[in-house]
């Protein structure tokens, strides 16, 4: 019932008046078929009885019924598509809003969420279109049922046994429904495989991974895996389709047997003189239309079932978003006490082992804190918790003594900024690529210039044919940049907010050479200390110790726990893990 309510609500939002006109049209079409059968009977009976006025009236009424049928059939398609197009825009907007409304990114890494999103976005009749057209299909199906019922009622008027055609007619509906359920279940069961195949396919055909795949010569193996995955999905789907076809065939066999029997009954009645010539015409007209009426009813039910499935995913997404309410307190304007993590533990959803355990860490205001550790130690995960992209499984994070959980995620995001190792390459004009780092100043060219300068990207913009106005990226025939140049722009984006409370730099310079990284961080730390009145905490993750040693405080992570922490000098003096790694790297870089 809720699914039905959701379908109707979407169409009402797309156009209430157009929808009412549409319902009126399909009802007219449904009644026209019965009227055509009746007028033909009157016409024939009046012609045999030689009643001129009756012939004229039946012919006129028949002509009106035919005209109503063809006009409503034409307009029906136009109105249905018009409402569906508008509804589809609304649905897509809702999906995007529901996806981006969730302040954490957990859902974007959850397979069940991605499966539902993939099914919704699959396009065509099995995606959002199915929902967009659902109310119109509902009205059309109701009209088909009405038309079918009128036909059966008229048939029963000639002889009650002819009403049994309804039973025969129900067979394709019932068995067809069973067939559709089979196919639907198979499609749901294979959506994960389809996503896996798509991921393998993308690896082979997209330019960035394609380079690596071709050099390694792993293309044939990946294609083989994609094919195996595809075959497995297809086997399940094709098997289900064959079984569904068998059920449909059985349904139509029952109907054909019933139709043959009905023709036999009418022939016997005519021989006995209990049926008029008009009755015979009526029976033939209606019975021949029965097949079309049953087909459209069945087709309508299939599409409604599909729409129900899609509506269910759509409602799930909206409920998921609603379960992550936004709102909360304002973030402080400046930090006086800093950010504190107490007893933090974190396990990724669906993962058995914790990634972080027992993290106790104080990030003082105005400090530059570096986090080091081997790959997989949990550095990025720590950043995800501090920026609010994930919620800790245990423990608490406080900002100037206030729990981060009570601060509005959107307002916390507005005072945090970050540059990440897996940075985005927004294909926008160069200035906007940087400006989106602080939306209110998207077109503030002075602010953009400053951020670009601090990120050491001035020369990159200057070399573009139209400077900051140059469209970037190949998707839109724009200028393409080198990977490291894109990374510098990502860094500039993170610098758009000049006075954040938290600035996260998660290996944002991995594509730069060590000297460039060193110079950049020197500028950064100077800048952060200059902005001391805001108390900005800068959290820096880097594998390069020549950069790390500039930090005020260094945290060494290992297997999700803090191994040691202190200043560069303290840690060297302790002679622990940090001292070992630092000495090793210094020796490797020594001339
Ligand atoms: N989305 C995720 N779902 C499940 N596990 C994850 C996810 N992201 C990371 N992990 C796991 O968490 C652990 C820590 O990952 P994290 O990215 O925090 O490490 P890191 O120290 O930043 O590593 P690197 O230096 O390579 O960037 C890894 O074992 C990784 O497999």
From TrEMBL:
It is found in: Cell membrane. Residues 339-584 form the ABC transporter domain. One of its GO terms (cellular component) is plasma membrane. It comes from the Bacteria. Residues 135-306 form the ABC transmembrane type-1 domain. It is a multi-pass membrane protein. Pfam families: ABC_tran (PF00005). The chain crosses the membrane at residues 20-39, 152-175, 249-271. Keywords: ATP-binding, Membrane, Nucleotide-binding, Transmembrane, Transmembrane helix. Its main location: membrane. InterPro entries: AAA+_ATPase, ABC1_TM_dom, ABC1_TM_sf, ABC_transporter-like_ATP-bd, ABC_transporter-like_CS, P-loop_NTPase, Type_1_exporter. GO terms for molecular function: ABC-type oligopeptide transporter activity; ATP binding; ATP hydrolysis activity. This is ABC transporter permease. It comes from Paractinoplanes rishiriensis. The lineage of its organism: Bacteria, Bacillati, Actinomycetota, Actinomycetes, Micromonosporales.
């Amino acid at each position: 019932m809720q699914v039905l309510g959701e379908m109707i609500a979407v169409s009402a939002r797309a156009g209430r008046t157009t929808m009412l006109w549409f319902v009126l049209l399909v009802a007219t079409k449904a009644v026209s078929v019965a009227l055509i059968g009746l007028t033909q009977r009157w016409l024939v009976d009046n012609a045999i009885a030689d009643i001129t006025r009756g012939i004229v009236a039946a012919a006129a009424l028949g002509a009106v019924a035919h005209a109503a049928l063809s006009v409503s059939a034409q307009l029906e398609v136009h109105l249905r598509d018009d409402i569906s197009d508008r509804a589809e825009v609304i649905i897509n907007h809702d999906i995007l809003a529901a996806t981006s409304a969730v302040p954490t990114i957990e859902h974007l890494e959850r397979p069940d969420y991605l499966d539902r999103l993939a099914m919704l976005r699959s396009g065509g009749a099995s995606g959002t279109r199915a929902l967009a057209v659902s109310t119109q299909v509902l009205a059309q199906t109701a009209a088909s049922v009405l038309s079918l019922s009128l036909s059966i009622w008229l048939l029963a008027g000639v002889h009650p046994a002819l009403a049994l055609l309804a039973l025969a007619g129900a067979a394709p509906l019932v068995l067809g429904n069973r067939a559709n359920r089979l196919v639907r279940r198979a499609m749901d069961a294979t959506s994960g495989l389809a996503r896996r195949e798509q991921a393998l396919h993308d690896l082979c055909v997209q330019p960035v991974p394609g380079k690596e795949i071709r050099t390694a010569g792993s293309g044939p193996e990946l294609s083989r895996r994609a094919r195996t995955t595809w075959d497995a999905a297809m086997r399940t789907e094709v098997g289900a389709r064959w079984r569904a076809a068998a059920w449909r065939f059985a349904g139509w066999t029952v109907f054909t047997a019933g139709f043959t029997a009905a023709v036999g009954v009418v022939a016997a009645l005519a021989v006995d003189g209990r049926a008029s010539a008009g009755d015979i015409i009526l029976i033939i007209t209606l019975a021949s239309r029965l097949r079309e009426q049953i087909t459209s009813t069945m087709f309508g039910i299939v599409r409604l079932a599909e729409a129900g499935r899609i509506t269910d995913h759509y409602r799930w997404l909206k409920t998921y978003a609603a379960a992550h309410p936004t709102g909360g307190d304002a973030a402080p304007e400046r930090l006086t006490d800093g950010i504190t993590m107490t007893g933090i533990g974190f396990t990724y959803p669906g993962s058995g082992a914790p990634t972080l355990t027992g993290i106790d860490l104080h990030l003082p205001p105005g400090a530059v804190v570096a986090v080091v550790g081997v790959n997989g130690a949990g550095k990025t995960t720590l950043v995800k918790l501090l920026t609010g992209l994930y919620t800790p499984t245990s423990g608490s994070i406080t900002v100037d003594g206030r729990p981060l959980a009570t601060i509005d995620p959107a307002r916390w995001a507005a005072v945090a900024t970050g540059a990440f190792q897996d940075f985005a390459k927004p294909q926008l004009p160069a200035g906007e690529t940087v400006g989106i780092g602080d939306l209110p100043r998207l077109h503030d060219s002075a602010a953009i210039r400053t951020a670009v300068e601090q990120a050491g990207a001035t020369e990159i913009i200057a070399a573009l044919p139209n400077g900051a106005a140059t469209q970037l990226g190949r998707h839109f025939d724009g200028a393409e940049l080198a990977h490291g140049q894109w990374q510098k722009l990502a860094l500039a984006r993170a610098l758009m907010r000049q006075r954040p409370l938290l600035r996260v730099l998660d290996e944002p310079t991995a594509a730069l050479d060590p000297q460039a990284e060193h110079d950049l961080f020197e500028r950064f730390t100077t800048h952060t200390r200059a902005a001391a009145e805001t108390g900005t905490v800068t959290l820096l993750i880097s594998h390069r110790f020549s950069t790390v040693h500039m930090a005020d405080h260094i945290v060494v992570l290992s297997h999700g726990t803090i191994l040691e922490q202190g200043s560069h000098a303290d840690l060297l003096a302790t002679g622990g893990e940090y001292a070992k790694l630092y000495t090793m790297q210094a020796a490797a870089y020594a001339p």
